Predict the structure of E3 ubiquitin-protein ligase FANCL.
Amino acid sequence: MEDFLVEDNPLLLPVNKHKSAYDGFISVQGRDFRIRIVLPPDQQLKQAKFYCSWQFKHLLRGYEHVVKQRLQQSADLVTFILELKTVLELRLRSLPGGCSIQPPQYYSQLISEMETLGWDRLIFIDTDFRTLKLKAEDSSARQHVLTVKLASKHPAEAPECSSDLPTSLAITWTPQSTLVQLHSQFLQVLDSLTEFWDILDEIDNKTWILEPEKPSRADTMRRIAIGNNVSIKVELDPRHPKMLPDCCLLGPEHVVTPLRAKLNANMHLWNPDSSVLLNLRDVLEIEFPSSATHEKSSFNIECGICYSYHLEAAIPDQVCNDPCCGQPFHQACLYEWLRALPSSRQSFSIVFGECPYCSKPITVKMAATKS
């Protein structure tokens, strides 16, 4: 708790080894206010003593009872400091020249709901007290964030909610709804997607993922390395994650063709009671490379012309089919390369030429951006 307190308020530090007294500053709206808190031997806030600068006392005039009440009722020092900064923020906003504020009942309603929900679930709140970020944990201990944008007439109007999910976030709201109920609905959504994330976590942990490089919880696709220049792109259904996903094999035809034949021939063996990764191994009759058996550098995935992986949104998906080469290229890079060669020829939208690496025949369709 003390570590979080100091991290959130770096100018407020304990002044003894028992951490029973804190002295320093809290910052609100770019202004620093001096405070001192002295805890009793039992570390309970009810008997704590609170001191502050005269500027702070001036701002709190008429609100002293609120600070005293929060000092007696807050669960811990971190919660008290957060609530104290909230009160100070409201007072600063109510001063002449401050930002426009909502009616008092808006803030009292918000504070009441947060007290019921728990301040420890609040990650962020903006200076307008309209946008909140609440944390939640699913049954597999994964951390998630729910962003809530409150309406000006909260709770009469429904808030806007968003999160990093593979499906739309459907929330039921009535004028009697609260943030506690909203958070509970969010947890139910997380529970419905737990199996989907468990499957993707297994794939991420036991294979080499080429794409996306930094997957989010909303991503439903994984491009999994099979070998040098060979991979499979799978697209999972979040609602039915254990069913056969959409699969697309990428790589030289002499390698991809037999894999595609196995996929088609063994599709009927797919067992929804087994993991997706195990099913992919059985259907394709392969073992996927993993971090325990291969380095990621073992997979040649960079374009042989521009020497990069991403070209805007494109990846190297054009491959030389010669078994001794198999070099990948971006479609646009290969198209421009072949078009510049005097020996290449074009028939409709297809350009015929020689591989930049092995000089064997290679073709590419005209890039989609070209006319």
